[in-house]
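It would be a great kindness if you could assist me with a short task in structural biology. I am sending you one protein, given as its amino acid sequence and as whole-number tokens for its backbone shapes. I would ask you to consider whether the tokens describe a fold that such a sequence might reasonably adopt. The full record is reproduced below for your convenience.
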Amino acid sequence: MQIQNLLEIADAMLYKNGMDSAFYKHKTAVVTGGGQGIGLCIAKTFLEAGANVVLAEADEQRGSKALRFLDKTNAAFIQTDVADEESVRALVRKTLDRFGRADFLVHNAAIAKNASVEELRFEDWKRVIDVDLSGAFLCAKHFCKWLKQSGGAIVHIASTRAQMSEPNTEAYTAAKCGLVALTHALSISLGPSVRVNCISPGWIDTAGFLHGSPPPWQIRPLDHACHPAGRVGRPEDIATMVLYLCGPQASFITGQNFVIDGGMTKKMSYPE
């Protein structure tokens, strides 16, 4: 078989799986909270599909490590506090200076301040809302002009905490629930030029994207077994869906929230 035919088959396979190299090539994806974990995996997946990537990360050391990890000339790190409007304006300006366009915006930046209702400081509550929710609005507000020009897409990374809770997670839960609602509101306001969708991950083991830092927990066989899908999630599970939602195959999908949690939110559980 001729080489040209092999290349055409390879491109067809990539397109079928939501990774059309021709579609993503020369386009630019901005990933907030891209310094580690799910965000870093999303950035890596965009690069592998042929896109330029901007890592918008508040922590300078983390962002620099992420850039070295990616090791691509078409990746850039821009230190950004998504809760600060001037910082977001600078992110837009620097993105356009570097790559000349913005096509995909992934709001993954998030923090959590867990404490009892009585002990949670109002300042901590506000900071979580500012980063996790207001940051998504600010990024959409200042990038939407350029996303409209390119017919781009926004993907918000929420959480299954928008649907179910653990004790002492009020700020994080409220922010993620708000992010799901912001998604469908933006999809109406920005459509049809820009599609806006949301992903709510469940338990995702991010150990492979933490720059060698110890993971916050050790995964046990029991943790895998309790999931109807038979395992804890991987960052690639989320990144693959992000890429799909930004791609041409998802052109009829907007305003939706996709729960990727191995079936846990559908599992009825009672003490034995």
